[in-house]
Amino acid sequence: MDTNITEELRTKLLQSGATLVGFADMQSAGAGNLPYAACVLIPLPPAVVNNISEAPTVEYWNTYNSVNTLLDGIVNAGAAFLHEKGYSALPVTREKARWNTSTMRTGYPYKTVATRAGLGWIGKSCLLVTPQYGSAVRIATLFTDAPLKCDTPVEKSRCGNCDICRANCPADAIHGATWVPAMEREKLVDTTRCRGTMKKRMKEINGFEATICGKCFAVCPYTKKYLRRNGY
Ligand code: SF4
Ligand code: SF4
């Protein structure tokens, strides 16, 4: 591991706009020639999240897209920095991730990287939950062969007996299971029900189809704590 390159990369990612950065050793997760990963995180604005606890909004859709664009810029800047230093790097921008709308998968383990980078756990909602912002976050990943000094993975859920996301899901898609590392996504959430309901609600409420909802994370107590800290 190389402490210097780790700290230099952290500084680069923070200066490029990341709010939190974590580093993950992905070798045991089957990563090939790029065994390390940085996870960068940006919290969503509290005012926007506060408005989606009942229904998705156009404001949330616009914010979701603009934060994703910011994240693309951050991981691209990190990759350029690593290339200059002589390392390989793969920034998983939205274009590279090739989001598959039928499987709702990108082919890259974003959330696994986030847990292994110590940023949070996977909630009963199947979303990353961070102690600081709940699930009101967007994340992006940068894979590399630079020998990063990695953070301690989070391997335990802190959802406890909470059931709020399951109880509030309009699709009844959340099963209520407690996450453990390497758990299949389907054990946590029925993605077909979730996706269908997201599209339908956006169309009914805002007049266009988009696979976005957010109710499960807007009502999460960890997200609520973040909102309260910001006056909501
Ligand atoms: S995004 Fe909406 S529909 Fe999907 S699991 Fe969360 S609350 Fe349910
Ligand atoms: S609402 Fe409760 S159960 Fe769901 S992710 Fe948040 S803490 Fe976990």
Characterization of the model:
With 232 residues, the protein is α+β, with helices and mostly antiparallel strands. The longest helix has 27 residues. The model has no long low-confidence stretch (mean pLDDT 93). The chain has one domain. A 4-stranded antiparallel β-sheet has the order 1-2-6-3, with helices on both faces. Helix content is 39%, strand content 13%. It is built from 9 helices and 6 strands; from the N terminus they run H-E-E-H-H-E-H-H-E-E-E-H-H-H-H. A hairpin with a 5-residue loop joins strand 4 and strand 5. The chain is globular, with a radius of gyration of 17 Å. Helix 1 packs antiparallel against helix 3. The structure holds iron/sulfur cluster (2 copies). The site of one iron/sulfur cluster (SF4) has 11 residues, from helix 6 and helix 9. The site of one iron/sulfur cluster (SF4) has 13 residues, from helix 7 and helix 8.
Secondary-structure element order, N to C: HEEHHEHHEEEHHHH
Shape: globular
Largest sheet: 4 strands, antiparallel
| Number of structural domains | 1
Number of separate helices: 9
* Main β-sheet, spatial strand arrangement: 1-2-6-3
The percentage of residues in β strands lies in 5-15%
Average of pLDDT: 93
Q: How many DSSP E strands?
A: 6
* Bound small molecules, deduplicated: iron/sulfur cluster
What is the CA-CA span between the terminal residues?
Answer: 42 Å
Low confidence ranges: none
Q: Given the helix and strand composition, which structural class is it? A: alpha+beta
Q: What is the gyration radius calculated from CA atoms?
A: 17 Å
Helix content: 25-40%
